[in-house]
Amino acid sequence: MLFKKVTRRWLVNGLGVVAVLLLILEIVAAFVIRGYYYEQAEHSLYTRARSFSDMLSTYANQDGWDFVGSARDYMEAFPDKEKMEFQILNAKGGVLASSTGFLPEMAAPEDYREAMQVYLNSTDEPKGVWIGESASGQKVLALTLIIAGDDGTVHGAIRYLVALDKVDTQITVLISIMIAFGLAVIFFAMLSSAYFVSSILRPLSEIGATAKKIAQGDYSCRIEKRNNDEIGELCDTINYMASEIESAGELQNDFISSISHELRTPLTAIKGWSETLRDESMRDEELLNKGLAVISSEAERLSGMVEELLDFSRIRQIKETIPQEQLDVFAEVQEAVFLFRERAQSEGISLQCIEQEKLPPVLGDRDRLRQVFVNIIDNALKYARAENGMVRVDAATVPDGVQIVFSDNGIGISEKDLSKVKQKFYRANNQKPGSGIGLAVAEEIIQAHGGTLELESTEGQGTVVTVTLPSIKEEPHE
């Protein structure tokens, strides 16, 4: 179907236009050639007639000059009787004599009437030309030239007739050559264009077939790149898309496996302790409190996982749900830091929050931004060093916005993982709990606020996360 549609469009829009242009050119050329050859035939007759007329004009004004006699003398010695016919006409257009020896019975010919009209109404050469069929049915070209004296007396006219069969044959041959040349041009244009169209349609067909396989779930399909052109770039793009989908599928499978394991652990703990607490023989107050604490802790852990999954499910609608509220972004940073103070102290990690200067307000969602800051600080504490761990938060004003920098001296991220950690489901360290979508959600939220989230890290030295948000421009006071 693809071949049929594109080929049809090519035939109509491409080759059809070329064929029409060639047809127009050949028609114009045929008329030009016909006009040229007929004009040359007319010019040849006129040259002969003019030469004879000049000769007669030397005698036309002499007393007793006989036009018919002079014309007959010329006719007897006419050298081209085999090529053309020479006629002598009287003043009324009647044929007095012919080089063929036959006198046609006809009224004044049309070319004679034209010549007389020119002679009477104009100062131009008194000639007339006519193209038509002779009495024998042969196509001829006739030229008549009026012979008159200086006093205006019309003595008669001389008329030349030549058959156009050979001229028309030559014109037909030339037009046939042009038609053959045009057909050859169209034929070679079809060959070259068919090869060109085939070189485009074949990879497009392969791309369509591969795209169908990818849509059906076969992400291992790849397209062979044959040329380094736009089609080749499209092949690279499709192959890249397939590889990214395949990688995303693998990450999603890893995520499902990981989250299944993460969910199984707290569920197992909750189920085990609930069964233990149901046993009446194990009703010890200390054991009861410990079991309830474990159940509460694991339930909170499950709640956090569910929140992450809900955030992931709403990640595409984040931009549509951002309320435009003016807020103090550093206050939200301090709130997030305050939430982790006790945890940082208990784990022996130094948690600092420094505001370099008074920050301008920003527009956004208070809860969403706090969610981003909480996620970043939680990751920093999670991967902090066991000894002399440090997490620092700096806030400062930058051109057209505010910048919050979260830095730590933790285990860092390897170079191969650094470019992927913001992808959904990707986890650089599988030994730590998590779903691998926290940074992906955080970046979506920051981008929805018109800002950026940048990540720098060196393995074994630490990580720096930089969040930049546009600020509200204050109107200058008058």
Description:
With 478 residues, the chain is α+β, with helices and mostly antiparallel strands. It has three domains: 2-169, 2-Layer Sandwich (Beta-Lactamase), CATH 3.30.450.20; 230-313, Signal transduction histidine kinase, dimerisation/phosphotransfer (DHp) domain (Helix Hairpins, Orthogonal Bundle); 318-470, Histidine kinase-like ATPase, C-terminal domain (Heat Shock Protein 90, 2-Layer Sandwich). It has helices spanning 2-57, 67-76, 110-121, 165-215, 230-278, 285-313, 329-339, 341-346, 366-382, 415-418, 438-448, and strands at 84-89, 95-98, 127-133, 139-148, 154-163, 325-327, 349-355, 362-364, 389-398, 401-408, 452-458, 462-470. It has a five-stranded antiparallel sheet with strand order 2-1-5-4-3. A hairpin with a 2-residue loop joins strand 9 (389-398) and strand 10 (401-408). The longest helix is centred in the first third of the chain and has 56 residues, at 2-57. The chain is rod-shaped and about 160 Å long.
Short summary:
The chain has eleven helices and twelve strands. The chain is an alpha+beta fold.
Please state the oligomeric state of the protein chains shown: single chain
> The CATH topology of the largest domain, please?
Beta-Lactamase
CATH top level assignment of the largest domain: Alpha Beta
**How many structurally independent domains?**
3
Second CATH tier, the architecture of the largest domain: 2-Layer Sandwich
Q: Kindly report the spatial arrangement of strands forming the biggest sheet.
A: 2-1-5-4-3
Order of helices and strands: HHEEHEEEHHHEHHEEHEEHHEE
User: What percentage of amino acids are in beta strands?
Assistant: 15-25%
Q: What is the general shape?
A: rod-shaped
Largest sheet: 5 strands, antiparallel
Number of helices: 11
Q: How many extended strands?
A: 12
Low confidence ranges: none
Helix/strand/pairing category: alpha+beta
* End-to-end gap: 70 Å
| Overall average residue pLDDT | 79
Tell me the radius of gyration.
51 Å
